[in-house]
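MODEL INPUT / OUTPUT PAIR
PAIR INDEX: 1
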Amino acid sequence: MQDPVFVKDAFAKIAGRYILTNHVLSLGMDILWRRRVARLVAGLQPRRLLDLATGTGDLAEAISAAVGPGCAITGADFSAPMLEVARARSFAADWMVADALDLPFADGHFDVVTVAFGLRNMADWPAAIREMARVTRPGGQLVVLDFSLPTLPGLREAYRFYLHRVLPRLAGLLTGQRAAYEYLSGTIERFPSGAAMGELLTAHGFARAEAIPLSGGIASIYVATKAAAD
C-alpha cells in the first residue's frame, strides 16, 4: 500500500504541470487510453457516474464527451490543488474533495464508478475497492485504468528500464519533483495486474471482473460488475 501523506503532497506539487507531464511521459498514449475507457463507459449508458481520484479531470472530460448530457458526473479527489485544475475545465461536473476510503455518498448511488491511475496510489486497496463497491448500484460497474507490467519478453525489460531510469529524470525536468515520480514508478511494480487484479476486485465486493490489456500490457482496463440484487 502507499503513503497517503507523501502521495497527497506530491500531487499538490505537480498539479499545475500534471496534464502536460502525463502526455509527454506516455508519448500521448494516455489520451488514447482514456478515450478507450470513455467509449466503454458510454456503452454502459450510466445516468450517474463517479470518477474517483479524478485529479485534473482528464478522464471525466473524456467520459463527458462520450456519454453526452444524459449522465450526471461527479469528480472526487483528496487533492484540492488537483481539483482546482479540474474546475477550470469547460464541461459540467460536480467536483468535491473526498477520501476514497470514506466516500460521502449513499449506498448504490452510482451506476458506474471509474478510477484512472488512482487506485494504485491509495493507502489501502481492499478498503478502497469495498468503498467503491458500496457506492455502486447492484448490477453496476467499476472501471479501473492503470499501469501494468507487459508480459512479452523484451518489451517488459525495455519498459522497466524506461520506468526506473528515464521516466523519473524526464518528469523531474518537467515538474521539478523527480522524487515524486521515482516513488510513483515504484508503485507500478507493486501494483497487482491481470488475473491478480481481477482476484482483488472479486474478493472485495464485485461478482466478476475482466482485464483488457492496452499497448502490449503497459496499461490495462479492468471492468468489474457488482452482483445484481436478488
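PAIR INDEX: 2
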Amino acid sequence: MPKHVGIVACSAEGAALCYRTLCGEAPALMGEHMHPEVSMHTYPLGEYMPYIRSGDWDGVAALMLGTAEKLVAIGAELLICPDNTIHEAFDKVAATSPVPWIHIADAVGHEAKLHGCTKLGITGTKYLMTGPVYPRRLAEVGIACEIPDEGDRERIDTIIFTQLVNGIFTEESRLYFNKVIAKLKASGCDAVVLGCTEIPLLVDPDDCPLPVLDSTRLLARAALKDALI
C-alpha cells in the first residue's frame, strides 16, 4: 500500500497547488482516479507570521510539530511542508518527528543536479532569500546560489504577502519577476528556484528568462515517489 502523505501547510495557495499536483499526477503511476491517501492541516498563516518576522524559529517549529502530530494521529506516514520559508525550522522539527519528512530544497537540488545546474537564482520571501535553507542544502550537492539585490528582495516579498498568498496574480508582478530573473541570468545562474510555493502560480515557465525549478510541484512529485516505494 502507498504511504499516507501528510501535508504540513502554512499558506493556502501554495499548499493547494502541492495537493493538486500530488493527486493529479498520481494516476499516471497508480491507475485511473488513484493517488496515495493524503491529509492536510494548517494553522493560520497569521499565527506563523509573528514568529517568522521576529526570527523565532522555535515558535515556527512548535506550530509545524503541532500540525505534524495531528497528521500522524490520523495515520500519516510521510510528511511534507509546501512552504519554503518555514523550512528554516526544519531541522528542529525533523529531529523530534515520529515519521520521516522530505526537505523541499532537497527535492529542488535533486532536480537541479539531473539537469546539470551549477548555480541557481533563489526567489522567495525576504526571509527565505537571505536565510540558510537553500545555500546549506544546495552546497551539499555542489550547487552554488545567488539572490536578488536588496531592493528586488523587498519588492518580491511585498508581492508575495500582499498578492500571491491572497490569490492575486497580476501581469505587472509577473513581468517584474521576469525582470529580476533576467538579472540572475546575467549573473551566471543557469536556472531559477521558485522558492515561494505561490510563485509558480505567477511565473510562466514558457516566458521566463531562465529554466524554472518549481519547488511546489517538485516537492509533491518527491512525496509521490516516496509514497510508492
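PAIR 2 NOTE: Residues 62 and 93 are 8 Å apart (CA to CA).
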